[in-house]
Design brief:
By secondary structure, this protein is of the alpha+beta class. The chain contains six helices and 23 strands. The chain is elongated, with a radius of gyration of 28 Å. The site of zinc ion (ZN) has 5 residues, from loops.
Length: 372
Amino acid sequence: MQKSFFLSLFFVGSLLCSPSLAGGNHDYNFKVSRGDAFYKFFFSTGLSGKLLTKLMASDERAQRLNNIYPGDRFRILLNEDHSLKEIIFSPQNDNPLNIYYDGKIFRFQKADSRSAENLTYTIINIQKSLNYDAKKAGVDAKVRQIMVDHFSWEIDFSRDLRKGDRFVLSWNGEKTPEAMIYVGDKKTIALFSHKDSMGRKKYHTSKGETLNDSFAFSPVKYNRISSGFSKSRYNPVLKKYRPHRGTDFAAPAGTPVYASAKGLIKYVATLSGYGNVIYLKHGPEIVTVYAHLSKFAKGLKSGNRVKKGELIGYVGSTGMSTGPHLHYEIRINGVHQDAEKIKLAKKSVVPNSEMPGFQKRAKRILEELNIK
Ligand SMILES: [Zn+2]
């Protein structure tokens, strides 16, 4: 009793504003008056400037705390050890915003009378890498892998991620997320779960498509195979039997060569064996190789992205080649595959009959998370 009385005196006497100390020194309630600022309330509870900086940088919704009006209310709850537990911001003309803190990350939740379910979510704030920061946010290895498998069709994790980019995972009680959303400086990619007729969970954009692409069988229009994939083939240039780890498409010099699926340009180079060659990376594990090109398409640069069917070069006979043809390879995790036999996953689409429900749910999740 005595202790809390002195604490009250201490606080009231030393503060810029006068908090009402309802519920003792772990529960602070403030009503905004003209000229008040959130940081004053925050500091009056004894929390540090470092934590405030972390809070404000954790999520753009934190900016809402700087946009306050007389009559709005704050409640700041502390743990027994006086560390931050929760901030509840109750503006007069909007739903309350709850900010939970577990000692590591901030979790934002806006009470929404429209939502039937109680959505929970994880925010991964990129400081180092997806893997590092997701682990730090408590995301397990399986879910981290799912994120890489999907987002790497659109994001090159080694070049595209920037400090401050965020991934938001929303959960509905299952071990894998209901939605996974990347919010970057330049783009937002939102994926929503959907179960197919076999009950397999896949992630689709709000248009209903998965991020992966189906592969065209041939990167040239007229696809006569002059030499298939083989373990031992006579090489007339080397005059030796050697494995042929690709598929040769016969085509006149100058025939356009197209990307067989959407991907990232990994290398555009001139090598002694392959001649003019392009490596495309598709998703987390597939690489396609286009060799002996006479020339590259204009403006082709490593690090850029190409669409499926985009012109990337022209058939030629550069490098170790006996005549114009396209040498084409598919590698999965670095292992050469036979393009004529390999079955690659196809882009999948939410069935038309399920689209209205799927899109309604996607819209609700984005609204709930306050993502545009
Ligand atoms: Zn070849």
